[in-house]
Amino acid sequence: MNIEFPDKMQFLFDAARYKILYGGRGGAKSWGIARALLVLGAMDPLRVLCAREIQKSIQESVHQLLKDQIDALGLNEFYEVLQTEIRGRNGTLFIFAGLKHNVDNIKSKEGIDIAWVEEAANVSKTSWDKLIPTIRKPGSEIWVSFNPELDSDETYKRFVLSPPTGAKVEKLNWSDNPWFPEVLQQEMEDLKQRDHDAYLTVWEGHCKQVLDGAIYANEIRAATEQGRIGRVPYVPGVPVHTFWDLGRADKTSIWFIQVVGFEFRVVDYYENRGYALDHYLGILQGRGYVYGEDHLPHDAQNEQLGAKRTIEQQMRDIGRKVSIVPKIGVADGINAARTVFGRCWFDEEKTADGLTCLRRYRYDVDPDTQQYSKNPLHDEASHGADAFRYFAVAMEEPKTAKKKKAALVRAGGWMGA
Length: 417
What we know:
By secondary structure, the protein is α/β, with parallel strands linked by helices. The protein is built from 13 helices and 17 strands. It starts with 17 loop residues before the first strand and ends in a 6-residue tail after the last helix.
């Protein structure tokens, strides 16, 4: 096959454990990688895992992109495109999976030659830590493609700021694409004139300082500048309180926090999806902390379908100390979180995924006005941010109770115990 590739993509045909392509829109990163994998798969039998952080259906994968490139390369006689996989006549196999809640299943897939992680900007630390040792066949490779967003994102830190030894890393922008279409050229020029900062991010692959509409942008910036994101060791003997956002179909998220003097030591974080309560209780037990109270949202008092007891009751029955977080409005909860943020110290390693949620938690866009609404966007960042909000509300509650008591005393209505 005589197939042309941009000069900066030639390294895809050289041996390397990690091959990283990042940059702005229009660089043909995904297009080039798809072509390269199909060519390599036609030359030798390969098992290729095509992954992304979240994949709820095959439509969210690169399945269609590969199908289109098979047509463009005239490889229809060689590749059979099935509903959930693509097979080559020589035994090459393309499979597709989401990482966030499926890495344990990926571990069962033996003999992966190449793992391609597409749209990798938001892949979490946990996903990378689980995926990389799974791709362990001798000579296996991990290919990564993404448009950068924040320089604090795990993928950018891991593969661009501090790439692994021997990694081949290329920044690929529209200017490196000899087939850059004219219609995109006009879109690029229009954005460059209208919003130069946005142009640098979208088309030149520059990182943003903060995400548009980020709710805790100022608080995260202050915590970073003041050195409150780093190593925060667990203090033995000081109880660890947990703060939960509950979900089954959605994520369950848990923050682990110690109160030391006037500081909140955020020492750990965990999230997952699709597991019953026993799984999360096992995680708590495995951490080995001395625990204080488990702070649960009000829906922990709801009866579960098929269960005779609520989440609260189940946890109390095994001896956990449970407190239900008062139900207040989201806006008031966000204000409470902003209030306590300045007293929080975050362990950068153990709370990395939680910090990602806080960095990416942002306001939704009103579909009619295209302006930011007063409501947060419900996405993958919401659950960790909601659990943090419950932490803030729980910490504010004792203060509120003291104010009410003082007011009753002043009014002569407090009789004491």
